[in-house]
Design a protein that fits this description.
Layout: H1 11-21, E1 35-45, E2 63-71, E3 86-93, E4 99-105, H2 115-124, H3 136-145, H4 150-153, E5 159-160, E6 168-169, E7 174-177, E8 183-192, E9 198-199, H5 201-205, H6 211-221, E10 225-233, E11 253-264, H7 268-272, E12 285-287, H8 291-308
Helix pairs in contact: 1-2, 1-8
Protoporphyrin IX containing FE (HEM) binds near residues 14, 30, 115 and 118.
Length: about 300
Amino acid sequence: MTSTQTPMPDATKVVDSMEQMSAGPYEGQRRSSARGLCCTGTFTPTGDAAPLTTAAHLQHQPVPVTVRFSNSDGNPHVPDGAPVTRGMAVRFHLPDGAETDLLGITVPLFVASTPPEFLALTQALRPNPGTGHPDPAEVRAFVAEHPHLASAVAQQPPIPVGYGRAAYWAIHAFVWVNDAGRRQPVRYRWEPAAGRASLSAQDAASRAPDYLTQEFHQRLQDGPVAFALQVQLSEVGDPTHDPTVAWPDTRKELTVGHLELTAPVVDQSHWSEQRFDPTRITSGIELSDDPVLAFRAHAYAESFRRRSRHG
Ligand code: HEM
């Protein structure tokens, strides 16, 4: 693994810029992924991860989970058909009362290698006051200055038929540690059991503004919404510090568990107020040397602070 010395921007400055990017702030709302729904279910590990990590939820016993699906925009009024990424934030409730989170989105690469690059991109994506949309020339200038981000920025997220019909990548590397102390960098992906399915932009535009919530509730009437947790194992030399660089598709992949979502949470408002955090790990899992992963903890805490005081 390599370590980077990138100076961190102030999280307040980044969250300010995210608010401007979504023409916010919106009172009491997350500064990203404002619109969403929470549900409950069970994660059953296959046992295939047990030789590689001591993490309690990746052994042999099922654990309860709470999951929040979301649309990435910080504006909660943007309709579900918008061509944005979707999020899946999973909280595993561990047998000893502890909790660990795993957050994923519907594209495999992040759009910045470092927090300063992310800040610069959010600035380039601010809506032009005249048009209400980002200025394409600013985005082109950002990519010209950061050519290594061109393919990540060009990713087109699918507009899923339902929250349960998309794959969600956790993107960053994490490091598993087993009971002999052996360390193995990994990357996670949730794969929908019903298969991936998306809408054309035209079809999406004709759907109800809350079609994702409606579809999710309808699907639950026919049985659980299910996902497999796929884990890619790194090999020597695979970068762990850069969320814009994929590992080769040929890397060994394990199916480490199956998730079954069975019902909306009874208390949506309680759960939508919670703070998911990609750095909320548990024994047997370590953070990698990715500076974006470390920075996210500060940005999420700042967003939580602002929305909790109803600002
Ligand atoms: C510099 C990088 C990033 C920053 C500054 C950032 C910032 C934020 C903020 C401020 C929130 C709202 C938090 C809250 O109020 O609880 C959020 C939510 C979220 N972010 Fe990020 N993010 C970053 C990268 C990522 C990446 C790489 C992923 C992909 C795994 C991701 C996935 C999500 C998801 C799924 C949510 C919604 C969580 C929920 O439902 O509570 N973010 N992000």
